[in-house]
């Protein structure tokens, strides 16, 4: 059993449709169906009644849904806990602004954020008041 199978299972249960669930998790409908079938084989029970247009949970599916959600939440919490103690918070922050804007408290806050979280990259997109772009400027440690 894999976490992605549980993610697909929860998506189908919530969307009540394999196609919409596939769009939600950004894979093909056939990929979602195949992973759900594999999960059902591993569990030894059908999780969905596929006889109607909507995918409805079977009794086994209803019993599994709460535990699948809990497993996904636990996996997310595990990753976040490790990131917090490892100080590996990463990401990208992009701020759009008009050229000539001088909001010093914002710049100070962004610089402090970058110092506290060096795994984040910071970019400032500048435009003129009329909206024509003047390019982007990377601000790795301080802001204009």
Task: Give a brief rundown of this model.
The chain is α+β, with helices and mostly antiparallel strands. It contains 5 helices and 5 strands.
Structural write-up:
With 144 residues, the chain is α+β, with helices and mostly antiparallel strands. It is 53% helix and 18% strand. The protein has helices spanning 3-15, 18-25, 29-43, 59-86, 104-116; strands spanning 48-49, 56-57, 91-98, 120-127, 133-138. The strands form two sheets. It has a three-stranded mixed beta sheet, with no helix packed on it. Strands 1-2 form a two-stranded antiparallel ribbon. A hairpin with a 5-residue loop joins strand 4 (120-127) and strand 5. Helix 1 packs across helix 3. The longest helix is centred in the middle third of the chain and has 28 residues, at 59-86. It is elongated, with a radius of gyration of 23 Å. Mean pLDDT is 82; it is low at 134-144.
Structural features:
single chain; 144 residues; alpha+beta; 5 helices
Secondary structure elements and pairings:
Elements: H1 3-15, H2 18-25, H3 29-43, E1 48-49, E2 56-57, H4 59-86, E3 91-98, H5 104-116, E4 120-127, E5 133-138
Parallel strand pairs: 3-4
Antiparallel strand pairs: 1-2, 4-5
Rg value: 23 Å
Distance between the termini: 50 Å
Total strand segments? 5
Which strands sit side by side, in order, in the main sheet?
3-4-5
The low-pLDDT segments are 134-144
Which descriptor suits the 3D outline? elongated
The major pleated sheet works out as: 3 strands, mixed
Helix content, binned percent = 40-55%
- Mean pLDDT across the residues is 82
Order of helices and strands: HHHEEHEHEE
Q: Structural class, judged by helices and strands?
A: alpha+beta
Q: What is the percentage of strand-forming residues? A: 15-25%
Total helix count?
A: 5
